[in-house]
Amino acid sequence: MEYRQLGQSGLRVSVLSLGTMTFGGGSVFSKVGSTDVKGARRQVDLCIEAGVNLFDTANIYSHGVSEEILGQALEGRRQDVLVATKFRMVMRDGPNEGGASRFHIIRECEDSLRRLRTDYIDLYQIHEWDGETPLDETLEALDTLVRSGKVRYIGCSNYSGWHLMKALAISDRRNYVRYVSQQIYYSLQARDAEYELVPIALDQGLGILVWSPLAGGLMSGKYRRGKQPPEGSRHLTDWNEPPVHNEEQVYDTVEALVEIAQTHSVSPAQVALAYLLGRPAVTSLVIGARTEEQLKNNLGTANLKLASEEQARLDKISAPRLLYPYWHQAKTAKERLSQADLSLLGPYIQK
Question: What is the DSSP string of 286-305?
Fold first, then answer.
């Protein structure tokens, strides 16, 4: 297992992390999985044996049950691993039971600590943007939690580029603890993160944790052009997280994954994950699994390295179209671009 530095922090995390949205299976989360304590312990065992040291959850997953199960599964070995959780979503009825206010943050942190059976959280992440609470209030509350010892590091998730830069600027101005990472959606199915979020990570020294790196299973090789998907699977037109905007590009990408996988005698899913681990600023992929077989397969990615021509082939076939002002920059600013700029524009300039 490879370990990478999480942004500009001193923390080293495994390139594969275990996501626990499948733990519990309460309410809408039953659609993604319903792993019980016994199953969770088995998944944790497999991950630790493979060298995984980061386990990611959120208070909203099965409304706290995921955290409770993870806490039980890590009993006796909490000190040997890193635990990340999130806050922001509405947890109960009431006008202050969601968002990123000081009231909600401190309350949810205390509840998460209790459910996780621990006295500190290694990485505490805001799960989603809150456009009503002043960022100064949110960041001051998170800074207080770090200085109190209840939280070690902080991160964000699902921010836009300007949201993230505004938060970092306030932290710098107020001398608050800074976000060390962002957890974002990024996959071969949709590389939207490359417009702003990947360049910001490079420029500002943030680590990237990737959620749904297989695009909810779209990049697993199960969905092929002209072939019936497995029983119980969703059709591509039914997908809404992440949404599918170009079905033909999805199929083209999957065919390339299948061909590359055959040359390595691995699964298409492993190739899709290995591709992301070769992208700039990516620190760790948050993988989850309904079954032990799926988890073992995903963990096998740690031993796979793609050749540069294979990486380039996948780059080309899944490339996002350049939006404004990026196409204009590629055309007229190419002599004065930073490495952060080139993470998006480089391939287009080379054309």
Answer: EE--SSHHHHHHHHGGGG--
All structural domains of the chain with their residue ranges: 3-319, 321-351
Question: Which has the closest alpha carbon to 242: 316, 343, 158?
Answer: 158
Q: 273-304 pLDDT, tens per residue? A: 999 999 999 999 999 988 999 999 999 999 99
For residue 227, the cross-strand partners are: none
Select which of 61, 124, 159, 179 is catalytic. Answer: 61
What is residue 234's predicted lDDT score, i.e. its pLDDT? 64
List, in order, residues 6 or more apart from 270 with CB less than 8 Å away: 261, 264, 297, 298, 300, 301, 304
Per the CB < 8 A criterion, the answer to whether 81 and 70 are in contact is no
Tell me the average pLDDT of the chain.
95
Which pair of tokens denotes residue 161? 């580029």
CA atoms within 13 Å, Cβ hemisphere of 166: 12
Q: The domain 3-319 is classified under which CATH number: 3.20.20.100, 3.40.50.150, 3.40.50.2300, 3.10.450.50? A: 3.20.20.100
Supply the pTM of this predicted model.
0.96
Q: Which of 23-27, 56-60, 272-276, 336-340 has the lowest mean pLDDT?
A: 23-27
Distance CA 121, CA 226 (A): 47
Q: Is 179 a catalytic residue?
A: no
Q: Which long-range contacts (CB under 8 A, 24 or more apart) does 198-201 make?
A: 198/279, 198/280, 198/281, 198/343, 198/344, 199/340, 199/341, 199/343, 199/344, 200/161, 200/164, 200/165, 200/340, 201/7, 201/280, 201/281
Please compute the mean of the pLDDT values over residues 196-221 and round it to a whole number: 96
Angle subtended by helix axes 65-73 and 102-116, to nearest 10: 40
Tokens 């039980």 -> residue: 72
Residues in the chain: 351
